[in-house]
């Protein structure tokens, strides 16, 4: 009953690999690691996220390269954990999202990382392409993790919100004394902070939020971003780096200054951190069940400055990390796709129609036999 889950998230900072034991209640993460992406592959994926020329050829090459990298990384991780291939029933591979367009006339989402190559290299059945069936059923294909969050974190007497802060932030709402599960993307997580850090300092991210902590929040810039239409949109809703990227920051800055005095880069970073915390808190208060416990997972929980800002804006909530509850917050999303693979092979649905807006429950993913 062991399943491997793999994914590269919107931050594109590495491949998360997790092994899930699906025979326990709740399911248990038994091993996890993050494998750094080769620099050339990372650059190829980053270029694909932004529209440009020659995309079809670049897409095909990156799809094949990522599939091969995932396959080799799974074998390396299993060997390092002393887990035999024969112990693994299947791999659940999310791949890398290169486009997510839920609001166009014919909504679509695209994840790459050729699962045929993963199955061929590892000799393990591979389940992939989890989002498009939900979208075909009228959903947004995201967020998908709420059912897994429920399996891990549902509390019978206490409201819980599971907050994943990756490149994009998403929330799973688990009210007490009810079986209701809702969820939605709240807006940016690390995406704007990372984009500005790369642009201004050639650093992939702001470690611990130390740079943002040195700046001052610029009220006019914050005010511009607080009018963001996605943040105020009613769920179901999902978004991606197609919305929250460097151009977003630069346009907001120009609008706030009217092309007059430029804002110091460190103050922009502080304002982006404040906007990120504000947008999350706004969403949890607007569409949450009321004060309770917020369980934070994902890379953003390592950002001390962001967590402090979030705590101040949610001062009547109890803020904890998934690690405090015994669940590795870096491995959780990869483990979710291991769990989805388990459910796919059992013929069980993995979407939550109340979250994605789909017309009903659907079995997600395509099976690629070894």
Textual characterization of the structure:
There is one protein chain. A hairpin with a 6-residue loop joins strand 2 (15-21) and strand 3. It is built from 14 helices and 12 strands. The protein has 370 residues and is an alpha/beta fold.
Helix content bin: 40-55%
Radius of gyration (CA) equals: 20 Å
Order of helices and strands: EEEHHEEHEHHEEEHHHHHHEHEHHE
Strand content: 15-25%
Q: What is the overall pLDDT average?
A: 95
Poorly predicted residue ranges? none
Which features would summarize this protein structure in a list?
370 residues; alpha/beta; 7-stranded mixed β-sheet; 5-stranded mixed β-sheet; globular
Topology:
Layout: E1 2-7, E2 15-21, E3 28-35, H1 39-49, H2 55-80, E4 88-101, E5 108-112, H3 115-122, E6 126-128, H4 132-136, H5 146-153, E7 160-165, E8 168-174, E9 182-188, H6 191-201, H7 210-213, H8 219-225, H9 229-232, H10 246-257, H11 265-287, E10 293-297, H12 304-313, E11 318-321, H13 332-346, H14 353-356, E12 366-368
Parallel strand pairs: 1-4, 4-6, 7-10, 10-11
Antiparallel strand pairs: 1-2, 2-3, 4-5, 6-12, 7-8, 8-9
Helix pairs in contact: 1-2, 2-3, 6-11, 8-10, 8-11, 11-12
């Amino acid at each position: 009953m062991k399943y491997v889950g793999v994914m590269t998230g919107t931050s594109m900072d590495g491949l998360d690999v997790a092994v899930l034991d699906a025979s326990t209640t709740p399911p248990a993460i038994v091993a996890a690691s993050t494998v750094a992406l080769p620099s050339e592959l990372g650059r190829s994926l980053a270029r694909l996220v932004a529209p440009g020329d020659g995309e079809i050829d670049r897409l095909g090459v990156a799809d094949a390269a990522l599939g091969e990298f995932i396959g080799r990384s799974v074998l390396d991780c299993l060997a390092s954990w002393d887990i035999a291939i024969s112990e693994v029933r299947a791999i659940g591979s999310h791949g890398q999202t290169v486009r997510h367009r839920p609001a166009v006339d014919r909504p679509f989402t695209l994840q790459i990382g050729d699962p045929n190559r993963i199955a061929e290299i590892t000799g393990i059945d591979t389940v992939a392409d989890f989002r498009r069936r939900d979208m075909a059923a009228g959903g947004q294909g995201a967020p998908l993790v709420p059912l897994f969050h429920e399996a891990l974190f549902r509390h019978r007497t206490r409201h819980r919100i599971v907050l994943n802060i990756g490149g994009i932030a998403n929330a799973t709402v688990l009210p007490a004394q009810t079986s209701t599960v809702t969820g939605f993307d709240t807006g940016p997580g690390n995406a704007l902070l990372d984009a500005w850090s790369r642009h201004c300092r050639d650093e992939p991210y702001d470690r611990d939020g130390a740079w943002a902590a040195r700046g001052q929040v610029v009220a006019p810039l914050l005010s511009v971003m607080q009018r963001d239409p996605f943040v105020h949109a009613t769920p179901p809703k999902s978004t991606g780096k197609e919305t929250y990227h460097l151009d977003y920051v630069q346009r907001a800055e120009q609008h706030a200054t009217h092309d007059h005095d430029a804002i110091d880069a460190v103050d922009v970073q502080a304002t982006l951190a404040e906007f990120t915390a504000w947008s999350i808190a706004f969403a949890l208060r607007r569409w949450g069940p009321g004060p309770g416990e917020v369980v934070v997972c994902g890379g953003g929980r390592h950002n001390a400055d962001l967590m402090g800002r979030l705590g101040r804006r949610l001062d009547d909530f109890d803020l904890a990390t998934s690690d405090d509850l015994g669940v590795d917050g870096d491995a959780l999303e990869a483990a979710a796709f291991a769990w989805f693979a388990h459910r796919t092979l059992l013929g069980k649905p993995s979407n939550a129609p109340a979250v994605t807006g789909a017309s009903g429950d659907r079995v997600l993913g395509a099976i690629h036999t070894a």
